[in-house]
Design brief:
Aldehyde Dehydrogenase, Chain A, domain 1; globular; seven-stranded parallel sheet; alpha/beta
């Protein structure tokens, strides 16, 4: 626990008081962080990555205790896998921090500049958002990813991880703080909430004026609660109901490969395909369906999809609006691009939708008419990831229509201000 967090925990009389104390320390630290150069922040992140590597034994021992507690408490195998750290995963976490350090500093970037007829010179310049609250579950890597992204973009961060990963999060946080403070970063720039009291989450959500933005990372119930209760701006997605539409012109081999990867590479991530739409005139529907079934995927389809293979079970009305996060997939046969677009408009969660096609006109219509945060042509929806987009670690996927959409990384953690330079002009 950091000195600031320890002091806040010692003196706070309620969850609201705890959050207020942590936020005050974080906001003061952010002011100090704003005075650091991009090179200084990058150097601090590289030191933090070194400390993560040096603390491998400590972090893995804490993680082993979390895993044992989780197993005793009945966590599912999927949840335990998200929680688990090993030397390779920890090395990946450290490498991700270094990758963020290598990215261009967004703070101070000039978005655009103009000169008015009266000689005033105007520019929009990227600036940090301020203090960002991250509420997350299960994955201890979020502790490092969120800290690195927030610090690189000039923001202070208040981290509130899930109770199932409390030991892992504390060990990772301690290593990060050792590295960051060794290079002059204020200790309270990266704080981990020292309490697992669920009321603290509520206090964070209502801390308007103290916390500038909340980012939830976790299951549907967590995100739904945050979006329903927050009085602070929220950057999040609720569901990842991702579609892949196989157009009649699609290459059959490509269609099989993309569909199989989009669903089965990792079934538990938000970019996994949850609904497959097959054009009624696509020449090889059975090849695509068979590949998925043979890979162990349960298929639930409409009557025309069931006619492709008797192993396809009937789909219910709820299936088209379900994020399975498992080896289960809904399948529908549609009458061309217009029918596919209509289905996606009714059932997509605006996360990621893809078309497989050999027709450039169909591809462009799909790109222009599907109103999701990420729209793809001839690629697996599993590419919906900040790292795959060249953004480094991501803080989450945003599906709203304000501020940031898709993978949120450094640019998404900034806002802008207008800078106006004059030479004595007064307004008539």
């Amino acid at each position: 626990m950091s000195t600031a967090a320890f002091a806040a925990a010692e003196t706070a009389t309620s969850p609201d008081a705890l959050v207020a104390a942590l936020a005050a320390a974080g906001r003061a630290a952010q002011a100090g962080l704003a005075r650091m150069s991009g090179g200084e922040k990058a150097d601090a992140l590289r030191a933090a990555a070194s400390e993560l590597r040096a603390a491998e034994a400590e972090i893995l021992a804490a993680n082993a205790k979390d895993l044992a507690t989780g197993a005793a408490n009945g966590l599912t195998p999927a949840m335990l896998d998200r929680l688990k750290l090993d030397p390779a995963r920890l090395a990946g976490i450290a490498a991700a921090v270094e990758q963020v350090a290598s990215l261009a500093d967004p703070v101070g970037q000039v978005i655009d500049a103009t000169e008015r007829p009266n000689g005033l010179r105007l520019s929009r310049v990227r600036v940090p958002i301020g203090l960002i609250g991250i509420i997350y579950e299960s994955r201890p890597n979020v502790t490092a990813d969120a800290a690195a992204l927030c610090l690189r973009s000039g923001n202070a961060v208040l981290l509130r991880g899930g109770s199932e990963a409390v030991g892992s999060n504390r060990a990772i946080h301690a290593a990060l703080v050792r590295g960051l403070t060794s290079r002059g970063v204020p200790e309270a720039a990266v704080q981990l909430v020292p309490s697992q009291d669920r009321a603290v989450v509520g206090a964070m959500l209502t801390a308007a004026g103290l916390i500038d933005m909340i980012v939830p990372r976790g299951g549907k119930s967590l995100v739904a609660r945050v979006q329903a209760d927050a009085r602070v701006p929220v950057l999040a997605h609720l569901d990842g109901i991702c579609h892949t539409f196989i157009h009649h012109s699609a290459d059959p081999a490509m269609a099989r490969s993309i569909a199989l990867n989009a669903k089965m590479r990792r079934t538990g991530i938000c970019g996994a395909m949850e609904t497959l739409l097959i054009d009624a005139t696509f020449p090889d529907p059975h090849g695509v369906v068979e590949a998925l079934l043979d890979a162990g995927c349960e298929l639930r389809g409409d009557p025309r999809a069931q006619a492709i293979d008797p192993r396809i079970q009937p789909a219910s009305a709820e299936d088209w609006d379900t994020e399975y996060l498992d080896a289960v997939l809904s399948v529908a046969v549609v009458d061309g691009l217009d029918d596919a677009l209509d289905h996606i408009a009714r059932h997509s969660s605006d996360h990621t939708d893809a078309i497989v096609t050999g027709d450039d006109t169909a591809a462009e219509r799909f790109l222009n008419e599907v109103d999701s945060a990420i729209v793809m042509v001839n690629a697996s929806t599993q590419f919906a990831d900040g790292g795959e987009f060249g953004l480094g670690a991501e803080i989450g996927i945003a599906t709203g229509r304000l501020h940031a959409r898709g993978p949120v990384a450094l640019e998404g953690l900034t806002t802008y201000k207008w800078q106006v330079r004059g030479a004595g002009q007064v307004r008539p």
